[in-house]
Amino acid sequence: MNTQYVSGLHLARLLAGPPDERPYYAALAREIRRLVLDGRLPARVRLPAERDLAAALGVSRTTVTAAYDRLRDQGFVESRQGAGSWTALPSGTVPPGARFGMSHAWPGSEVIDLGCAAPSAPRIFPEAVAAAVARLPEYEAGPGYEPAGLAVLRATVAARYTERGLPTRPDQIVITSGAQQACTLLFQVLVESGDAVLAERPTYPHALDALRRRGARVVPVGVDAGWDIELIGSGLRQAAARVAYVIPDFQNPTGRLLDDAGRAALVAAAQDADALLVADETFTELPLAGSVPRPLAVHDPARVICVGSAAKLLWGGLRIGWIRTTAPLVRRLVLARESFDIASSVLDQLITDELLHRIDEVRAERVEWLTRGRDALTAALGELLPDWTFTAPAGGMSLWVRLPAPVATDLAAAALRHGVRVMPGPVFGTEGVLEDRLRLPFVLPPETLRTAVERLAAAYREVESAPAARPLPAYV
Amino acid sequence: MNTQYVSGLHLARLLAGPPDERPYYAALAREIRRLVLDGRLPARVRLPAERDLAAALGVSRTTVTAAYDRLRDQGFVESRQGAGSWTALPSGTVPPGARFGMSHAWPGSEVIDLGCAAPSAPRIFPEAVAAAVARLPEYEAGPGYEPAGLAVLRATVAARYTERGLPTRPDQIVITSGAQQACTLLFQVLVESGDAVLAERPTYPHALDALRRRGARVVPVGVDAGWDIELIGSGLRQAAARVAYVIPDFQNPTGRLLDDAGRAALVAAAQDADALLVADETFTELPLAGSVPRPLAVHDPARVICVGSAAKLLWGGLRIGWIRTTAPLVRRLVLARESFDIASSVLDQLITDELLHRIDEVRAERVEWLTRGRDALTAALGELLPDWTFTAPAGGMSLWVRLPAPVATDLAAAALRHGVRVMPGPVFGTEGVLEDRLRLPFVLPPETLRTAVERLAAAYREVESAPAARPLPAYV
């Protein structure tokens, strides 16, 4: 069995048909490069023969030949006489993890990883681990499975919602293996293949993946300039969407915060369209200044389903998230989750429980660290890349930068060669748009962020100076 | 939004149409009871009005009324004037976790849980936790995500395969959040909706769930009397199955072990039909006597995909499993797993790594414990339920018992009232067969197993003495 190639038809499907730009070979090369960069087409996958891809796309073979040639010159394709061509990443710069989609470099790698917006473990982490380990004997005698989550953690999470103004009982909580699993589970239970689901554009790419895998029809609604509730309402109604996936708190990637009036209006629009709202509240505990409005679910506790996560506030190495909804839906979710992974790690749940009991300490540390990171990043950008623009967010973990030109994908490719991994705007969209956008997390140390911006500036100069329409071998 | 009821149409779908037995109301009551017992219909779900269910099933309203009456008498339905009827579990006996499908009671509950075949943590568990915690600082500085799994654990798992006679490199391993997630991921990547997948009957119920959720057409092949390779081969070819899911080592639930010649023949049949074999090797490290033949994958390392798990050998509270396959398929699986849950718990991976390095100690403890449990269970059954028959398995964790009559579902209901939770045969099948079968795990202490058998015997006497065709309120 040979699984290391991609067929012409499959690649054509990944490319979602021929782009309608000219010269066509350049657009084709750019699209294939994007697939390699965002990991949908891993490195070292054998590419289809030129005639096969040409046939699958309905273009001339010469076009494909020129696209492959360009990719070869750029280091994204390698070929050997008689062995065909396969995908590659430009030499030497790629950390092992970065070959895989949104995977991440571990520290020590030479590449600075701005692909991932997740901080290291907080200072009190070892204490929380020790306390959790001390509680472990209570569970070791049992089989270790509890599909709904440990009772203690469900109670702690419920209490935290109640503190935030949303009265919640433990039986309204399902503990999941992270927020991503929470979304996957919700889409599994609430969405049928072919259903319309409204999602913000830009949004969290893994949520889009999960929706696509479910066979949902994603209806994007732009939030780059903020939430237009009227547009959302008409989008929900026109598409007859059953579910909308929204990130009201320091939206990922824009960093925007939906205000209280906007929340009430959003819920009213959902009521009007009889749609459920899945509110991803991953960043809700992370305001860097000011406070966060009451949870969206305050406005309709049954219609709004809350998703929370230990990954960003606590640590990504804890694979713990949760869902807050009605008790009956909790029961359906628990049944569904068993066929995914049965239950979550007992020890991770206990550590999360310990850390949530000391949430104020963790939050204070995070806020101090992220504020310094944000300020270092914005200062370095202001100095070295003054024509990049952004609004410094009041919370969350990343900056959503606007470039002066639609070159984000090329810039990401160049940046990788300069030793910085970044996520270009299109990764956060539903189709190939947002090319003038870049997400820059500020979770790394200030001096590392400064170095990253220096490398980005060098990469940007390279991309900027490349003539826009010159054929091989430059970038377009 | 009210999600706490099941509509007539939905319930009719769960029931997979009217059974063709008479009296029909009794068969209907039995099927609904089965849905409640195996958790597909949770407790406290409002049932459809009698006329709605009658219409959805195409039967008379009197039939539904009689079925509801019977369920009410048996304690599986409660009703209140004006408020309708809802599902219930017979009074007082149900541990909190047991309401949910295959969920499990924690120790301390009065019900003895034979629903779950998973042991407590091994004696060296605290040492392994301490050693893992000591290694944690190395990872705390990073974001904590590694979708393919920590490099150290991938290497340890690969080395274990190599030791078992199947040369394996670390890049052929994906670490998952348990074997169940491994199967879900594999089905996601290898199976399209509508594809035929061959599965053993009986088999592991959560694997069937995962296949059904994927939209696979499950083609069952009986293995109750052993593997009939010719039948499997023709099943694969006739259904044009792309994948077969098999459990060659101490098959769950039959406990059977496929011998070396059978393995070679099974792989040859898969080659002949050009099907992939997903081999669930959850119990491979747990022979109680003798040895296990070489891994199935020895006969075709690319065609056979191995799934392994920490849950049974080490501890279920560690949500860690793995897949062994070709490096290219590993890359595809890693991409797919990111949209499920991004990555597995770092600490659980480190604990698993520690325990795998001391696998001989863990195994010796398990074998001693399970052998005592098996012997205690078989002795108690021989004494108290001499007309139940079984073959004591040479490995694994449970006994597959044959009852003298097809009463497993009724027996499970009666057993719950007597304080034992057991899984009746039909849970392990694809349609309502195996009613003369019961799975009895032997992971609990010998004295608990003895008590469980005493309770089972009392429940069995009750079921046995109930006249087979008497109407309300007895069990049929």
Give a quick precis of the structure.
2 copies of one chain form a homodimer. The first copy, chain A, is an alpha/beta fold.
Describe the protein's architecture and organization.
The structure is a homodimer of 476-residue chains. With 476 residues, chain A is α/β, with parallel strands linked by helices. The first copy, chain A, has 3 domains: 8-87, Winged helix-like DNA-binding domain superfamily/Winged helix DNA-binding domain (Arc Repressor Mutant, subunit A); 96-119 and 361-465, Aspartate Aminotransferase, domain 1 (Alpha-Beta Complex), CATH 3.90.1150.10; 125-357, Type I PLP-dependent aspartate aminotransferase-like (Major domain) (Aspartate Aminotransferase, domain 2). Helix content of chain A is 42%, strand content 13%. Chain A is built from 16 helices and 13 strands. The first copy, chain A, has helices at residues 8-14, 24-37, 50-57, 61-74, 125-135, 137-140, 151-163, 179-190, 205-213, 229-239, 260-273, 327-341, 346-357, 359-384, 408-417, 446-465; strands spanning 77-80, 84-87, 112-114, 173-176, 196-201, 217-222, 243-246, 276-280, 304-309, 321-324, 398-402, 420-424, 437-441. Chain A has a 7-stranded mixed sheet, sandwiched between helices. Chain A has a 4-stranded mixed sheet with strand order 3-12-13-11. In chain A, helix 1 crosses helix 3 (50-57), helix 5 (125-135) packs across helix 13 (346-357) and helix 14 runs parallel beside helix 16. The radius of gyration of chain A is 23 Å and the shape is globular. Mean pLDDT of chain A is 87; it is low at 91-108 and 469-476. Chains A, B: One of its GO terms (molecular function) is pyridoxal phosphate binding. Chains A, B: Residues 22-90 form the HTH gntR-type domain. Chains A, B: InterPro entries: Aminotransferase_I/II_large, HTH_trans_reg/aminotransferase, PyrdxlP-dep_Trfase, PyrdxlP-dep_Trfase_major, PyrdxlP-dep_Trfase_small, Tscrpt_reg_HTH_GntR, WH-like_DNA-bd_sf, WH_DNA-bd_sf.
